Amino acid sequence: MFNNVRSSCPGYTFIELLIALALLGLVITPILTLYSSTALMVSNSADYSVAVNLCRDKIEQLKALESSELEYFYLAGEFILEDQLPGYPGFERLTTVAPFHYFNGHAGGDNEPAENIMLSIDVTVRWVEGDHERSETVWTLVGLR
Description:
6 strands, rod-shaped, alpha+beta, 3 helices, two-stranded antiparallel ribbon
């Protein structure tokens, strides 16, 4: 008697629907998590790109200076410059220019100062991202002679 009633009502039971929804939730949850983390990474990479470009811009400005101006930095010793970046709110740029001293090793083990005069240019851009302070640093050497 009960067998006839069950077969005469086609469709899904409540338990079958709950199981299907649970399986659907298990499949969709990782996909949505991946989507939100990807969106966050894209936002963060935009800030890193801006920071690297600001660093490179400052390095190119310093490389474009004439030799006599660069020698001033060498004679002055370590020189620190903090830039205001009006077009980039939340970003700060700190530039350090210092003489770079290195030695040529000889077979006898004696170290003499190298003949080339070089400057070390270190540019750091800082910004706040959420609760964390982030920074990106670009470093290069510039020869004076």
